[in-house]
Amino acid sequence: MEQSPQIGDRITDKSASPDDSTVRDWIGPGAFKHWASLQNWIEEFYPGVFAPEWLYGGKKRGWSLRYKKTKAFCTFVPEYRRFSAVVVLGGAERDKFEERRYIWRSQLVKLYDEAQTYPDGKFLTVAISSADDRHDVTELLTMKRPPPSRA
Q1: In the chain, at which residue ranges do the beta strands (DSSP E only) sit?
Q2: Number of helices and strands (H, E) in the chain?
Q3: pTM assigned to the model
Q4: Domain residue limits, the chain
């Protein structure tokens, strides 16, 4: 007997990368609005910079959608009934974060402080369930890589 998915479970069917309708059904319509909104924001502010790529991380991690040019920009993680974005902050970005420490929302600072630091950076996994959460992610991404100027 197969167990029902639990909140936070990943999409693990490796036969094909998920499409929009699979993601919407999995994360739910509310979370999908944030997913689509963040995708649109990246396309608007970083036109032609990133080609999002689906990655399969195995049975435990499942599918994720990575935005990367030469360095990782962010990764979207579709989880059952929720959506998270992973932003890796390297040394320079951590310095910038610390400079702005008292400007960030307290939830984000707590997440930052609790994230383990690895040789390649701090991996912040931000669960996005509100416009404020999405704004935190866009601010982190803008700090990490300022958008190209629009002439």
Answers
A1: 53-56, 63-68, 72-79, 82-89, 117-118, 121-127
A2: 6, 6
A3: 0.93
A4: 20-144
